[in-house]
Amino acid sequence: MNWWRHIAAAELRKILAFRSDFWVTFIGQALVQLLIARALWQSIFAGSEAEVMNGFTLEMMTLYYLIVPIGQKMLTGENVGFLSREIYDGTFSRYLIYPLSFFQYKAITYLTHSAFYGLQLILIFTAYNFFVKTAGFSTLLPGTLLFLMAAFAYMSIAMIVELLSLWAENIWSLMVLVRFFCLFFGGGYLPLTFFPEELQRVLVYTPFPYLVSLPVRTTMGLAPPNEIVHGALVLVAWAIVFYFIAHLIWRRGQYKYNGVGI
Amino acid sequence: MIAVKGLRKTFTTHIKEPGLAGSLRALVKRETVTKEALKSVDLEIQQGEIIGLIGANGAGKTTLVKILAGIVHPTAGEATVLGFKPWERNNEYRRQMCLIMGQKAQVWWDLPALDSFLLLKEIYQIDDRLYRENVEFLAETLMVKDHLKTQVRKLSLGERMKVELMAALLHRPRVIFLDEPTIGLDLSAQKAVREFLKSYQREFRPVTILTSHYMEDIKELCPRIVIMKEGSFVYDGPLAEVQRMLGDEKCLSVTTRERTFKFTIARTELAARTAEIFAQNDVLDLNIQDPSIEDVIESIMKNGTAL
Ligand SMILES: Nc1ncnc2c1ncn2[C@@H]1O[C@H](COP(=O)(O)OP(=O)(O)OP(=O)(O)O)[C@@H](O)[C@H]1O
Ligand SMILES: [Mg+2]
Questions:
Q1: Which tens digit of pLDDT belongs to each residue from B29-74?
Q2: Residues B53, B177 share a domain
Q3: Cα separations in angstroms, B81 against A15, A174, B96, B181
Q4: Same domain (yes/no): B221, B253
């Protein structure tokens, strides 16, 4: 059972081969995000004359908006089209020829991307905390791990949509829509504490808060231990459900696959 | 080894008129066309045999190969390869099979070949000794030693094809599907690939199905050929037999002041017809030949029969 390590290593080599300008883009992006979030929330806080808004101080809020974009990258792993593109152009045939499960193969490459961004998360968080003492470090690792679990769950959702490309001509817009929903109701655009009470209560029964809000809040040390444990279990349950549905869809969809391009 | 019975495949595709209006109309009412790519074919191939699958563009060669390699499901019919139904994609089957597509890279574009090989070694669980032996042997016979450390995307078509062959044969498959392995290669590269396939076949005796549009490939490698026309087999038998089919025919090529024309006539009529031609035309040149195997096959591909 060595092959998955090799696939991950190969994927990492691919990522690095393409990202020679990686550090520049990465630090540049983080800085820009930091400045925008800071400026925006500074004026909002100034306008409301409150020290704490829905449980967030200005420093916390800035950190929140620093973590979310990286977390989002972890979730979305490989880009939109990681299956559908290969199905449309026929590269997908490769996984049907090699003696392996394409689900496992794709999960490994996907999570390799996520883990790579996880490393960024750790670096940025540490740097921010170094300059602006906001949160402890003890929750950084659990938070990153939760993000990885969320990435797996989100990947399963994405796989479902991507596999629909076996029937539909174009799933790109659907995928963008799904991504928007997951982020919006997950608290990626605005912390969930800003949402109406009723909506927050309903959302608990959906996978969304566990995809974004939970890992971010865990990373920042805002989630109590029992919430983390409970959340992790719910996340795993959702991930299994979606992964299973993706398998079902493939069971039916494989008859539709035509191996185009040769 | 390979047994195919009544295998059929129909493709359904949506069609749309060109232009924006066509796109809008397609939103409301989607028109479909069905295409019978395979119309119930039967085939038996034994261990160690290599068959050449030929036919015009769109005849259904690749479709047959894709089904046997397990990439697509047939619409009806049966096929077993090594006792497995290919499209069930049993790992046991996939470990003994390979598909090489001249049109489509399978090795990882962004990795040097050697990295791809290491990955395949793990995927196919090839043991260290066999792996070393095989890389050595394949790199030697294909003469690609110098290209194994370069990113595959940077290789030339011919170099890439050799790397593809290597990658596909690392696990010593017992069943080999080659879909136009020499497409786009220059003459010497074609020759190298052919020589390689020949020696590989001699050494390891796999079952091989080869499709190609180059008669040279077929003549060199395939004692037995299957000719396809519009989804059906129109000939399945020894290549030598095809040549004999027109054994008592002659090809005449006549050049007059106005034009050149070619036709085929029975050997027995040869003397009478040539005399006639000389009498009726102002002949500049006359050439009498046995029909080439290409002519015969082309005729079968077009008309379904030798004549
Ligand atoms: N995915 C697909 N969807 C719809 N039609 C298809 C599909 N794949 C193949 N066909 C049709 O099936 C027929 C057979 O195609 P196939 O690729 O098997 O031909 P081929 O003999 O390999 O031709 P070539 O020599 O050009 O490679 C063609 O008419 C083609 O248009
Ligand atoms: Mg073809």
A1: 778 889 999 999 999 999 999 999 999 899 999 999 999 999 999 9
A2: yes
A3: 38, 40, 10, 21
A4: no
Nearest bound ligand to CA B58? Answer: 1
Residues B94 and A95: their CA atoms lie apart, in Å, by 11
The torsion defined by the Cα of A256, A261, B5 and B9, in degrees rounded to 10, comes to 50
Query: Nearest 5°: CA angle at B179, between B174 and B180?
Result: 130
Domain shared by B191 and B284, yes or no: no
**Do residues B199 and B225 both lie within one domain?**
yes
pTM for the predicted model, two decimal places: 0.87
Same domain for B239 and B252, yes or no, is no
- Residue A167 backbone dihedrals phi, psi, to 5 degrees: -105, -40
Extract the tokens encoding B92. 């046991």
Are residues B234 and B262 both part of a single domain?
no
Tokens of B211: 């499709």
Edge-first strand listing for the sheet containing B2-15: B31-45, B2-15, B76-81
Full residue range of the structural domain in which residue B281 is found: 248-289
B71 DSSP assignment: S
Quickly list DSSP for B4-53.
EEEEEEEEEEEE--SHHHHHHHHHH--EEEEEEEEEEEEEEE-TT-EEEE
Residue range A86-120, pLDDT digits in tens: 999 888 999 999 999 999 999 999 999 999 999 98
10 Å Cβ neighbour count for A131?
7
Contact A17 B110 (CB under 8 A): yes
Mark whether B112 and B239 lie in a shared domain.
yes
Q: What angle do CA A196, A199, A202 make, to 5 degrees?
A: 155
User: Which residues of chain B approach chain A closer than 8 Å at the C-beta?
Assistant: 11, 14, 62, 66, 69-73, 89, 91, 94-95, 97-99, 101, 103-104, 106, 108, 110-111, 115-116, 118-120, 122-125, 151, 179
Identify which of A166-180, B68-82, B141-155, B276-290 has the greatest average pLDDT.
B68-82
Provide CB contacts within 8 A for B193, sequence distance 6+: B161, B162, B165, B181, B182, B185
Q: The tokens 């001509």 sit on which residue?
A: A169
- The enclosing H or E element of B99 equals strand B97-101
If one counts the domains in chain B, the total is 2
**Has the ipTM of the complex gone over 0.85?**
no
Question: How far is ligand 2, taken at its centre, from the CA of residue B54, in Å?
Answer: 10
Beta-carbon contacts of residue B211 (< 8 Å; ≥ 6 apart): B52, B53, B54, B61, B62, B65, B178, B179, B180
